[in-house]
Write a structure and sequence with these properties.
With 307 residues, the chain is an alpha/beta fold. The protein has helices at residues 5-11, 15-30, 58-65, 85-93, 106-110, 112-124, 149-161, 204-220, 233-238, 240-249, 251-263, 270-280, 285-295; strands at 34-38, 47-52, 74-78, 96-99, 129-130, 165-174, 183-188, 192-193. α4 (85-93) links the parallel β3 (74-78) and β4.
């Protein structure tokens, strides 16, 4: 397939992308009081498709980026957010590609073939690909059924690349979905090799169903136990005068985030709004970090039932 300028821009070096990545990673990590990464050594070499659960909107993708400091990752996202041309260009610059869902209609789903081609090129040139296994986010610790698109991509890419493509389960486990701060764990499970699953004897439909259920089971095994919060009440008390100053100086972030969260229909965007405001208001970022660290010493975590 001839390479277009758009395709090249996805996997080729981008000075702007690499310039901003450290700052983006810092803002994402500082949105939480603590981020733990477990099992990173389980990510195999070669071609990799990361398959995390999807429970916290844009923050899920930002947490995946923390697995690859400063290195790009290609993501799939729902196609409807690409409808505006300016937004589509911005998303492509961020290495995010559109994926349609069955409910969008056969004609739209057919466009996924072009996206799979671009994702395969990303794999060929050393970029990992991330597809959220459920296809949409839900702010709960359980999971919706896994979509087979991940395994379709893995199978097709393996055939075109002439090498195995591994699907890697990832569990994203947030202490709190609806209030900024708290802790988050990023857990990596054992990779699922795809090529060996299709033996030509078992109907493809049955193989896909088995793989989807296997991935769902593995992802579920990686969530439901967010890291405990480390408290430092004595240090917090000693810093309280400085925190009072930080509270005033961080108001542009704190108040704006509170307003956006209050107006949001989907409260799972709470972390994302806070991250975005930190990103665009760097002058107030240090004060907001101090304030949130102090508050997390005393705020009780929001409890969730495992779905």
């Amino acid at each position: 397939m001839p390479e277009s300028a758009t395709m090249k821009s996805l996997w080729e070096y981008s000075s702007g992308y690499h310039f901003w990545r450290p700052y983006v990673d810092f803002c994402a990590r500082s949105t939480f009081s603590r981020v733990e990464i477990e099992g990173k050594e389980r990510i195999p070499g070669g071609y990799v498709i990361l398959a995390p659960n999807h429970c916290c909107t844009l923050m899920d993708a930002l947490m995946i980026l923390l697995l690859y400091p400063r290195d790009p990752v290609c993501f799939g996202a729902r196609a409807d957010i690409f409808r505006k041309e300016r937004m589509a260009r911005a998303l492509r610059w961020l290495k995010i590609l559109p994926l349609s869902r069955e409910r969008d209609g056969i004609r739209e789903v057919a466009k996924d073939l072009d996206t799979f081609e671009e994702m395969t090129e990303c794999l060929r040139h050393g970029l990992p690909v991330c597809m959220f296994s459920e296809g949409r986010h839900r702010a709960e610790r359980g999971m919706l059924p896994v979509k087979k698109g991940i395994f379709r991509l893995a199978r097709e890419a393996s055939a075109k690349l002439g090498a195995p493509v591994n699907v890697v389960p990832v569990g994203l486990d947030y202490e709190d979905f609806f209030r900024p701060g708290g802790t988050v764990a990023i857990r990596i499970g054992e990779a699922i090799p795809i090529a060996s699953q299709f033996d030509g004897l078992t109907p493809d439909k049955d193989v896909y169903e088995t793989l989807c259920e296997d991935l769902r089971r593995r992802d579920l095994g990686l969530i439901g136990k967010p890291p405990s919060r480390r408290r430092h009440p004595v240090l917090a008390a000693l810093l309280s005068p400085a925190v009072a100053v930080a509270a005033v100086l961080s108001l542009p972030i704190s108040l704006a985030a509170a307003v956006l969260i209050a107006r949001a229909k989907d409260k799972a965007w709470a972390h994302t709004y806070t991250f975005a405001l930190k990103l665009v208001l760097p002058l107030f970022l240090p004060f907001h970090i101090v304030l949130w660290w102090f508050l997390r010493q005393f705020i009780k975590p929001y409890s969730h039932e495992k779905a």
